[in-house]
Write a structure and sequence with these properties.
The protein is an alpha+beta fold. The chain has helices spanning 2-30, 54-59, 159-163, 233-240, 248-255, 263-266, 329-335, 338-346, 361-406; strands at 39-43, 47-52, 83-98, 105-116, 125-136, 146-152, 176-177, 194-198, 203-215, 218-231, 258-262, 278-279, 292-308, 313-326, 351-358. β9 and β10 (218-231) form a beta hairpin.
């Protein structure tokens, strides 16, 4: 009987030692996969921003803060008369795991809204998007297949649905291959640049490692990205008409990305008008009259992201978003020069949106709690359990050999 028991103890001890070695070297790394039940909510602090009031522009009624300015009187007030300089804005983002998902892939549905806090619903909503992204659960990178979609104020969903994604949502746009990370970094993030997808320009650009810092007692990597002024209309139109047609909702989404007004309304002198942007007024016979000028909306952002590297969880974020109108790329680059940028933000004449959004404390706390939960699981399975198994394994082996010798 002692001999049988000694064999059992030796086998169990050896198995425990093998498992103690396998857990941190094989099992835990293989277990670093995205869960299927992902849910997160993040939001920004309310911040005073510059915002073009499209309703006031459509009604040709200058905002009260500009009513006494000379350029805002008369029948053709300048474009700057419709830009609010102290508009309280917030952004919210809801992320949830959806079908199709399986043991290898997980589909995320992300609803993002930008809204003003000084108006009631639904008049407070400025824009809303729903994104669908399918990630490889092991690498946390987008799959190399045309399965990603982006819907701008979806045609078959009310604005509030964009804030709270659901299984019932169906995209109105053609799926595409998404490159670059966005809402989740790899588990085991390195100190290097990663391709980061910007859904505004529909392209991936590198986001660069800046420094290692500490947040709530945990190691955190700081990444930084600047997207230079990029015209929005071409890429957005290409996405919207990828299915072969532009719906009325698509046309409505595009309408604000290119605007045509008399040169005087843009505040332009004759020598400031670029040839490619000018078009003669249909009813104007006076050769000396200034033409209409079409401008396109450009987007630029300074983005900062802080990532807990072991879990890949984003624990803090800020985006200084600026959208403005320019006649062409050359003028957009000129407006974005540091001295001109500073002046335009302080006294906006072409700005559509200037929103320096930063995560609120509740968002940072919730995301850090998620990261710490993941770290605790890794610590338990990668360190605590292996040590316990190793100790138990050694004890069993020693007892087994002692019993074997005595038998």
């Amino acid at each position: 009987m002692k001999k049988i028991l000694s064999y059992v103890l030796i086998v169990l001890g050896a198995a425990a030692l093998v498992l103690a070695i396998a857990l941190p070297t094989y099992v835990v790394p293989k277990g670093r996969v995205l869960p299927l039940n992902l849910v997160s909510t993040t939001g920004t602090n309310e911040v005073e921003s510059n915002l073009l009031d499209s309703a006031a522009l459509g009604q040709n009624k200058p905002l009260p803060e500009h009513a006494n300015k000379p350029e805002c009187r008369g029948k053709t007030p300048q474009f700057s008369c419709f830009i609010g300089t102290s508009t309280p804005l917030k952004s919210q983002r809801f992320t949830v795991g959806q079908e199709p998902s399986n043991k290898e892939e997980v589909t995320l549905e992300v609803g993002t809204t930008l809204f003003r806090t000084d108006r009631d619903e639904p008049r407070n909503l400025l824009n809303a998007t729903i994104e669908r992204i399918t990630l490889d659960r092991e690498t946390q990178m987008p799959v190399d297949e045309p399965v990603s979609t982006i819907d701008i104020q979806p045609s078959n969903a009310a604005p509030e649905q964009a804030a709270e994604p659901s299984e019932d949502f169906t995209s109105a746009n053609e799926p595409f291959v998404r490159s670059g990370i966005q809402y989740q970094f790899p588990m085991g993030t390195d100190r290097k640049s990663y391709p980061y997808f910007d859904y505004q320009v529909l392209q991936a650009k590198d986001i660069d490692f800046v420094e290692e810092v500490e947040q709530d007692g945990e190691k955190v990597y700081h990444f930084q990205q600047t997207v230079e002024p990029t015209e929005l209309y071409p890429n957005v139109r290409q996405m919207l008409e990828a299915d072969g047609e532009l719906s009325e909702v698509d046309k409505n989404s595009l309408s604000s990305l290119r605007l045509k007004f008399p040169a005087e309304q843009w505040g332009l002198e004759r020598d400031e008008i670029h040839e490619g942007a000018a078009s003669k007024k249909e009813s104007e016979d006076d050769e000396d009259a200034l033409p209409d000028v079409e401008m396109s909306r450009f987007y630029t952002v300074n983005r900062d992201i802080w990532v807990q590297p072991d879990t890949g969880v984003i624990v803090k974020g800020s985006e200084e978003i600026w959208q403005f109108y320019a006649q062409d790329q050359e003028e957009a680059d000129e407006i974005a020069q540091p001295e001109n940028r500073e002046e335009e933000i302080a006294n906006p004449e072409r700005t559509a949106t200037y929103f320096p959004g930063k995560w609120d404390q509740a968002s940072m706390d919730a995301q850090m709690a998620k990261a710490k939960d993941g770290l605790d699981r890794m610590q338990t399975m990668g360190t605590v359990v292996p040590w316990i198994l190793a100790i138990v394994g050694i004890i069993f082996l020693v007892l087994g050999f002692i019993l074997h010798r005595r038998s």
